[in-house]
Every structure is written in structure tokens, then in C-alpha cells.
Amino acid sequence: MGDTTTDQREPLLRIDDLEISFGSASVVRGVDLSLNEGEILALVGESGSGKSMIGRSILGLLPTPGRVSRGRIRFAGHEITAPSSPEELRLLRGRSIGLIFQEPLSSLNPTMRIGEQMFEAMRLHTDLSEAQIRDRAIEMLRQVRLDRPETLLNRYPHEFSGGMRQRIMIASVMMLKPRLLIADEPTTALDAVVQREVLDIMEDVARASGTAVILISHDLAVVARYADRIAVMEKGDLVETGATRTVLARPAHDYTRRLLAAAQLGTPSPVSGRPGEALLKVDNLSVDFTEKTFLGLFGKRVHHAVRDVSLTVAPGQFVGLVGESGSGKSTIGRAICNLTPKAGGTVSFDGRDLDTCGAGEEQRLRRRIRVVFQDPFSSLNPRMRIGRIVREGLRHEPGLSAAERQKAAEDMLEAVGLSRDMAGRFPHALSGGQRQRVAIARALIAKPDLIIADEPVSALDVTIQAQILALLKRLQAEYGFACLFISHDLHIVEQLCARLYVLHKGRLVEEAPTPAIFAAPRHPYTRRLMSASPRLEQGDDGLQLAETELPEIGGAEADYYDATRPEDPYRLIDTGQGHRVALRSEERRAG
Amino acid sequence: MTFLSRLLGKTNGLIGAVMLGLVLVVAFLGAVWTPYDPLKSDLLNRFAAPGLAHPFGTDMFGRDVLSRLMRGAWVSVSIGLSTLVIPVVLGTVLGAAAGYFRGWFDRLLMMVLDALMAFPGLLIALGLMAVIGANRYGVILALSFAYLPAVTRVVRGSVLSISQNEFVEASAVMGNSRLYTLIVHILPNCLAPLIVLSTMMFGWVLLAESALSFLGLGVPPPEPSWGNILSEAKAHLMRYPLLGLLPGICISIALLGVNLLGDALRDELDPKSASAPSKEAI
Questions:
Q1: B189 neighbors A383 (Cβ within 8 angstroms)
Q2: Cross-chain Cβ contact B166/A367 below 8 Å
């Protein structure tokens, strides 16, 4: 698998036969890579494939006890693997090679003002005057499209959202005009909308200053949009490199094909359920969070996390609840389960209002609702064996012997695609995907009628996501449960959900049957969400990146309710076939 | 027992366990058998040098030093172990209740404990001893209350952080009661810091008991404890340094052992360490 570039110049970065070892175990073997000036290379692989280690070895910053045990890395005439002095590497870092980390929350120092952090590296690596450095910083902040950059310099990192922090990170790294930028999962911690924004900005800035980029990610579909070339890692081996179009259209290696298949997600197959009376009915649900103001002495500030949201789930139906973080989608799930107190509204299950039906009845009804949480690493008790964790789901089922419970748990493990002998293991011996299967088994063992799945695949690798979605689909056919599927990724909910609710800052902005919403999304926010999460599609000559083309909609954008201006009048208008959209004016109609 | 083998596989764990083991063996032996009666004085044979008859010599009353150190080990260790009971049990109950149910009880309890923690533990113990009286039970009771705030705080802290986990919410969704969730899901996860703290505390108590006895407020003579052996030796320290040195060495060995073992336990019980207990059979 040769390079498709025909450039005869010495490449900017050249990695030959690289092997990285931790003790006696090698995590990266025989990797050859090269990168030209100004080129963007995507380094793709699942977690544990060694992709981050390659990035770190280029900076000479492998975590101990990792070391380069064979091969060489040449960067612009410098031997990274055999530097003449430690100083040589230190001067390269920052000045010539920039690094952006995954976690925007921890890569900025919380005790330093933004400006100070940006000036730091400039002072070290250039001999510009303070005023020049300041101008340059402001110019960079403007380039990453932050408003009023002059005022930002004096603020602290905690005053910014994750996406803004990552933009500030990009600004401060790119300020030095490095020749190579290594971005290690720069947007994995961010929502789809913000992710798109940040990556767009990063590409623009890098192309503008001619910086080469190595974009490390587990999500092929996300990086394919930006990369000139793609390199695919599997368990420490580089299995394929090539131009983005070629790799997408004609993948040479099996593993690449598997990654691509996972990124495609296949054709949606919504679970519509049985018609009839609603299983879950939420009416005008509101949830407030009160926040103590300064010193907690002078009253409280009320934050409306969820405002007047109504939704219904039919028996056996999959319903999607979509929005970016902070939209209140998880809060709705938690309020339904009584994990968060309601400020207003009612939740009825199977025709009974859960608040007024009496404690005993409420308990019986609530046991038919189970939850699958987002983080498989914190949702299983680390001190319990898998068997006991799953069995606990049956704790309130009367009339079962211990042996029957154990057998039911093992059967359930098999049903979710794990082996029976997993029952004796502890959670930490399992991978993220396996843990999520255990969480599903625990939720399903009592044969509930409703599962609330709160971002059940967001913490997983793309390949695993597809498996878990397929599993949910198969189990639904077998057990017939309904599901409220909470996610920030429209394309994931599209897979299974028959109906979608789109949430923005605690307000429902659009709801419709899934095909309708994908065919004709109306609300600007829905459209933004839709264009944000990229997917691969089968094109004329093999796979290619699908640019979501949105049909024209009637009405000006100003007609729609904008949740960033909560004081506007809000009204949901039915536009036919159960498609409802939020408008701001009460008279005019959309379309 | 893979856990034990991993613990002892660490240098500090092994050395700590050997030192502490030695102290415990001597203490339990000292409870039932000593070469001489540790209380019997022999005024004709005072300050005897170490020799075959008396391996560590005799003290100012002609009592056998080895016998006194052995019985003293028992007295000190038994006080140390008894002193763990009240803070660990009561501290766990209080800390768990405060951390899980929060509210006014938590706020009130923390206020009281914070106030208590503003004073050195030994000072509180001294004050309590003045009320209860200077004897073995006084020491146990006083030290128990001196160390109660530390345990309560540690348990409350871990309960607070464990409660953030989704498995706690999962338990609520399954319809489990709050008490069940607390006992089955939260408390077992707080065990690790509690075990580490108890180990360390055992060391602190040994030291505090010695300090109290040294000040004349601990176990009253002639019954030996490491602290009062040291205390009695201080008048003769210039001429017979061995009398003070030996109990000092005993206390040091016990403390060092406890600290080394405590550190190793902390490393091993940390749930984040990849080598936590795994594949034992069901």
C-alpha cells in the first residue's frame, strides 16, 4: 500500500519502521508514514490501536515506560528519535510542532487568564514585543471566530464552553504557525454541532498558514471530510494508507471495510411499535435547577432546564430525544424516572398518572421502566460480579428461587451476546462494549415495558456503536419493549426510532415521524444538527462522504422560535402528519 | 489468595507485613507467656547488663526488660486494636448517613466534627482523660473519640463520590430502597479507603498511647506498656540508654510496619488500579 503522493521533495515528516514498546510488549509495530508540508492526514483506529502513541512519539513525549524501540522519525531535518540534545526537541515542541488534546477542560490551566496562556509560548519562542504578541493573539482569536477577542484575553477558562475552549486551544497553538499540528481526538468530547464547527475552524486555520495536520480519531466519517489522506491503524499495525477518496471508495484492507461499514450504519429500520394507547405520556414537563447566587445569601437563580415538554411513547415503539448537551434531554429521562424532581407537568405510564396513583401502584408501575446509562464505566458496581449485577434486576420479582435467578441472569447474558461464564467476572475485566451489554442485560432481565436509554452508545467506539444498535434492535424484536432513546447524534437515533423529538435549551423545537424529519427538517436548529453529523454513503464509485443536502423550507428563519431568546412567545404548530415545529409568532404559519 | 500475594509482592508491603507480624506475634505471646514475671522486682539485681539470664538486662527495679517489653507489646497492641472499634463502627454509620442523606444532619455533624478537628487529637484525648480518669479504658475511650472525626470525614467523602456513579441511580431505578442502595452498592465501595485509614490509625493510636503513658496519663504503672516503660527509663537515660532505646525501637518497628503496609494497601485497594481483585471463582 504505497503512498499516492508523487511529490519528490523530502516530506515534512517521515516515519520509518516505527516500533513503540511498553516493557516487552509492543503497541505499535513497523509503521511507515510520511507527511508533506500543508497536508492533512487522518490517523484512524479504535481505542487501543496505538494511534495516539504515534502522535506522542513524534513529539518525543511517550508516557513512561513507553519508548521507541525501533525505527526512526525525521521531522524537517531533525532526528526526533535520536536528537542531538534534549533542547533540540524542546525547541521543536510548540514552535514547529503543535499539539491539541482531546479534553478541552483539562488542557487549559484553570488559574490562568486566557491571554496569559496564549502569550506564554510566544514569549518563549519568539522575540516579539508584548504589544505585538497581544495583537497577534487577538488576531488568532478572531481567526477561530470568537467574538470580541480583546475582551476574552482577560477571562478565565471556566467561563467558556467546551467548544470555545477547544477553539482557544487551536488559536494558542496555531499562533506560533507551527509546521505540523497533531490533534489527538480534538472533538471527541464535544457535541456533533460543535465538533463540526471546531474542525471546520481548525482546517481553515491550518490551510491558511500552510500547517500540516495529523488528525487522530476513532471516527472515520468525521475526519474524512478534512483529510487529504487517511491512515488506518489496527491493534498497533498500520493496515492501510491512501488518499481519502481512494480509501473510501476502494478500501484495500478488511479492517478498513469494517470501519467503513460501521460508519455507514446501514439503512434505518425504525421500530414503530403497536398502535393504541400511549405507554408513556409526558405532559408539559418542566424541570428547574436552582442555583445559589453570590455567596448563597442573596436569593437563588432559577434555571429552566426543561420547559413544557410533552411527548408520548407507544407500546413497543422507539422514540428518539435529540439535542446537544445542555438541551435538557437527559434531564427529561431522569425526571421520568424520578431521579430529578419535576417543577411541573405530569408523567403517566400505562394510562396511570405516576404522581397521583398511590405509592404502591407507583412502585409497581415504575418497575416496568428501566434505564441504560451512558457511561458503562460508572453504571456497573465495581465490587459486584457480573452475574450479581444482572440478577439484581430481578430483585423485586417475587417467587423465584436463587437458582432460577442465576439461570435467568446467565440466559440474559447469552441473549445480549456475552458468554454465560462472564457471570463470574468483575466489571473491570470487561471492555466498554461488553459492559454496555451487561447494562442492557440488567435492564431487560425483568422484562420491562419501557427502556430509557440515555446516550447508550456515545461513550463507545464507532464499530462497537453499530453492534450495540443492532443488539437493541434484535432484543426489541424478541422482547417487545418500547424505548426512549436519548442521543445527541441524529444519525444514530435515525437507525431505530420511529419518531423524533428535537430539543434545544429545554424547549421542544420540532417533533415528527423520523422519515418526515429527515425528508423535510423545518426548524433551523434541526437542520443544523442534521448537517453537523457526517455519514458515509454509497455513491456512484464506491463510498463517499455524504454532504447532507437540505431541501428549501418555507418561511424566514426569523419565524421560528429561537431557544436562545427564551422570552419570545413559543408555540408548537402542527404542519400535518404529526409533524410539529416551534414558531415564535402566534399568527403566522410555517410553509 | 491472589490479593495477598500481590500485596506481599510489593517490597513495602512485604517489609511492612513482616514488621507488623513480628509485633503481633510478640504481643500475643506476651499475653500468655513471658520469661519472667514482668511485675516482679529484684532489688539486688538492678540495671543488670544484657546477658544470658536477662537478654535485654533489667531495669531500675530489677525487672526483666524483655518480659516487660513483651507484656507491654500486648498492652499497647490490645489498646490499639480496641481503639479502632468505636471510630470505625460509629464513624462509618455517621459518615454514611451524612454523606448519603445530606441535609441538616450532614451540616450539623460536619460543623461539630470540623470544630473537633481544629484541635490536635492528642489534646482532645488529654482533655477527655482528665474527665474519665487515667486508666486503660480511659485511654481507649479518649483516643476513640479523638479519631472519630477522621473516620467520619473519610467515609462521608467516599460516600459522596461513590453516590455520583450511575450504578447508584441504576439501583434507584430498579426500585431498591435508599437504605438497600447505601448498604449494598455504596458502602462496599468505601471499604478500601476505610481499610487503609484503619491501618494507619492503628499506628497513630500506638504512638498516642505511648505519648499519653509517657506523660503519665496512660496505663498506670507497674503494668507495663511501651509508653510507660519509656517514661520510667527517662530518669536513667544518661547512664543506661538501653532502657529507653529498646521501647523506642519497638514503637518505631510497629509504626514503620503499619505505615509501609498501609501504603501498600492503599496502592493495591485503589479501585482504579488495573490489578484490583479480578478472576477469583464465584
A1: yes
A2: no
Strands A280-292 and A300-313: antiparallel
Check if the beta carbon of residue A555 is closer than 8 Å to that of residue A549: no
CA B199 from centroid of its chain's CA atoms: 6
pTM for the whole structure: 0.78
Residue B232 near residue B63 (C-beta atoms within 8 A): no
DSSP A550: P
Peptide bond into B222 cis (omega under 30): yes
Q: Is A339 within 8 Å of B278 when comparing Cβ atoms?
A: no
Q: Look at residue B46 and give its three-state secondary structure.
A: coil
What is the Cα–Cα distance from B23 to B20, expressed in whole angstroms?
5
What's the one-letter identity of residue A356? T
**Model confidence at A552, in pLDDT bands (50, 70, 90)?**
low
- Which DSSP string corresponds to A235-275? TTEEEEEEEHHHHHHS--SHHHHHHHHHHH--S---B----
CA atoms within 13 A on the CB side of A118: 32
What is the pLDDT, as a whole number, of residue A544? 64
Would you state the cell numbers that stand for residue B263, as one nine-digit string?
501504603
**A337 phi and psi, to 5 degrees?**
-85, 5
Res. A556: pLDDT tops 70: no
Q: Using the beta-carbon criterion (under 8 Å), do A396 and B278 form an inter-chain contact?
A: no
Cell numbers that stand for B56 in this block:
535485654
The reply to whether B173 touches chain A by the CB within 8 Å rule is yes
CB–CB of A141/A149 below 8 Å? Answer: yes
- Entry field: residues in chain B: 282
All residues of chain B having their beta carbon less than 8 Å from the beta carbon of residue A451 are none
Could you tell me which of A127, A17, A19, A123 has the C-alpha nearest to residue A67? A19
Q: What is the DSSP letter of A206?
A: H
Sign of CA dihedral A100, A70, A38, A234: negative
The C-alpha cell at A546 is 455524504
Q: What is the mean pLDDT of chain A?
A: 85
Dump the DSSP string for A229-244: EEEEEETTEEEEEEEH
